[in-house]
Amino acid sequence: MFKLTGQIKVKKETEVVSEKFSKREFVLTDSSSMYPQDISFQLTQDKCGLIDAFEVGATIEVSFNLRGREWVNPQGESKYFNSLEAWRLEAGSENEAQSGEADDLHF
Question: pTM of the predicted model, to two decimals?
Fold first, then answer.
């Protein structure tokens, strides 16, 4: 389990990929270092609505899992993809996101 605190930059709409799978992406700006990072997360299935409680610009703490998968293209070459799958969103404090003093990323 990982956690990151940052400010919501982008909230996308839920995308229905198939009858049994839906996902929703959002971007969080991590300003805890000298160079802010925009990090993309995804919510899936029944978690897609979690982001509805927060507005763009809000500071939140995201609990997420790191996921990876292999895809083989038609030429037989393997490609690898990673995703950050969020499963809990909580209101964070403005001071944590801006000062970098908080323990923003937990391993």
Answer: 0.81
